[in-house]
Sequence to fold (179 residues):
Amino acid sequence: MMRQIKRDDGIKLANGRSAILSAVELPGGKFEVMLLTKDAAADEIRSAQCETEKVALLIFNEMRDQYHVPELTGRYKKLAADLKDALAYGLEHAGTDDGGTCNFDAPTLHLPRWNQKMVEAAAKEAGTGCFQWKAFSKSVYVFSVPGVGQGYTRTYAAEAMSDFLKDRGYDAGMYYQMD
Fold:
């Protein structure tokens, strides 16, 4: 018989589906962590087996952090919508000349006292990635520009996104990095 270690029925996936995350001890002393959709299909999203309860709990927390998208409200919901619009605008203004230096250029936002996990969730919902960069005297969030080239087109798209976000009232800037 299986022994339930931990369970979370409130997982919300990026595609809007609900899921269940469960960690159990299997007969024979092994442990399994499984993420399943909560609908009638009960699709398995990910599972892992391990030898100890401690590792099972670590995997459980890692899966929740990776897959669960918190419900966005207030300024975080607005940020997600603005980032989505900025990404579309940036991709429209990327151009077709992808010459120049390969780069990781990206727009930044200075969002003091904002919750990092919620900013990351807003970015994920908008279809972009995000990381926090601490440089000089302040910390900023850097947002990726997926779906664009690696040279001038990336720079143009990132700069257009930054300009768009400035126009929406954000303290926006740029992160420039050559590959």
Summary: The first strand starts at residue 3 and ends at 12. The chain has four helices and eight strands.
